[in-house]
């Protein structure tokens, strides 16, 4: 991929194909105009409805470029999220805010927690264990599965000598960690009544309780909370304890899955909303709680800084370690970004196969190469390299399994889903925190992926422009790129209107 600095912009524009529209450079943070092109006049390219171009001829390779300061067209404006969308304090449409949920818990009332806005998402009634009463427990038994659980931290379980029911499953993050069930030994009878269970819950939640205060087994089921809460495991146990702690209450929760009163099946979101409306119970999503926590908690720590000479030029390298999982990430900084305004930024997900081995199945390595070149020539910019994002978050081994499925006819989205993963399991919150740590405030984000714009407001960041990152489309990655466009909303070249521009190679500086 070549980078060009036109000797005479007006002369260069006149050399363009008829109908070509060059962007007006509105956000000039650098002192030059930069384009990367390499398309011959006879290239058999077709434009798609969002501006992407895919070569239908087998085996051909087409080099794409990008306008560093492309005009913000209507298509680009639609690319950006609104001020509200992605704001950690703005709930998903149709749901209550986290703050409303916390207010309810402080008043000794219930909250309904769902994983997401899916109609089939399981819902749990949640309240603080320290405020349990026979009336509240009876309500949970009436509308729940009959199993009343208590979310607890590992240290409290150890203090009360309550072991896991199946210790060998502790590494399985997909399921809740059930412990041996208990009943309060004193002041209860069979343990089954709402009154008995309320007494057991209150005793469990008391910091003064002791292991000998309980019978085992019993009718209250403690669940082990995974350290890090919903930022580590997006489960109902973690969400319930997180909410109780955020409300300023003792870190023990009560929860019960909500079921349909007629057939005992998992209650639908429609029925959950009906229950919530009838009893004035806020419904919150775990995804909203994750965003809420990510905004308020520092999740990374800077560990070292060093100069890093690269094949593109000299950068300053900042190493960060995630407090959640220990994964180390790196930020490369070029030039002076002290004011943090209008900074060229590339947030790049780790792709070992593409970045290191030059895999032709994707465009990752080419995008990183192009971004580094553009930032080097601009003299000012940032590359955030997020590790742990392999295969859009599914890991290296699973990515190779997905490749096998793709060879059998699946596209990249279908392959991830077939393996039991989300189409895109990446989260960019860590990257946003690193950008804030080095002082970035507003940026021109180098991306074709709208998902990278969500949630920026919550971190004090704003995207003031987009630089499309267009790289070679080959026979090997053509279907992959088209799937990202049609199924994941990626946009290719929407800032450039009309046919791509042919350049004389003598007028290109690399």
Structure description:
With about 500 residues, the protein is of the alpha/beta class. It is about 30% helix and about 20% strand. The chain contains 16 helices and 17 strands. Strands 3, 4, 5, 6, 7, 8, 9 and 10 form an eight-stranded mixed β-sheet that branches. It has a seven-stranded mixed β-sheet with strand order 11-12-13-15-14-16-17. The protein has a two-stranded antiparallel sheet with strand order 1-2. A hairpin with a 4-residue loop joins strand 11 and strand 12 (about 315-320). The protein is elongated, with a radius of gyration of 27 Å. The termini are close together.
Descriptors for this entry?
single chain, about 500 residues, alpha/beta, 8-stranded mixed sheet, 7-stranded mixed sheet, 16 helices, 17 strands, about 20% strand, disordered N terminus
In short:
This protein is α/β, with parallel strands linked by helices and 510 residues long. Helix content is 28%, strand content 19%.
- Rg result: 27 Å
| SS content category | alpha/beta
Number of strands: 17
The description of the largest β-sheet is: 8 strands, mixed
The helical percent reads 25-40%
Count of alpha/pi helices: 16
Provide the β-strand percentage band.
Answer: 15-25%
Determine the N-to-C terminus distance. 9 Å
Average pLDDT confidence is 75
Question: Are there runs of 5+ residues with pLDDT below 50, and where?
Answer: 1-85, 494-510
What is the molecular shape?
Answer: elongated
